[in-house]
Specification:
Elements: H1 7-14, H2 20-26, H3 31-39, H4 46-56, H5 60-63, H6 70-81
Length: 83
């Protein structure tokens, strides 16, 4: 089963201004796997979530929202707009 594409990760990493492959390599994730993370083709490990959250300076739950509470989703959207 495929996951939904993770546009939060993509948007946050694009905002860094570096090519995505360099950003993924900077945290020890192969660029091919990084592409699959964004596309939702692989399950992301907790370690990868922590690395990516640290890279983009956002909380893990904003980058990888798993709670379907509408208020939480709106909080994440508001926080992403401040980046």
């Amino acid at each position: 089963m495929f996951n939904k594409p993770n546009l939060n990760v993509k948007s946050a990493m694009v905002a860094l201004g570096d090519p995505l492959y360099k950003s993924f390599r900077a945290v020890g994730i192969h660029p091919n796997r990084g592409s699959k993370i964004i596309s939702g083709l692989v399950n992301v490990t907790d370690e990868e979530k922590e690395k990516l959250a640290k890279l983009v300076d956002l909380p893990v739950d904003v980058l990888f929202p798993e709670i379907q509470d509408p208020d939480h989703v709106q909080d994440c959207v508001d926080l992403m707009e401040t980046v």
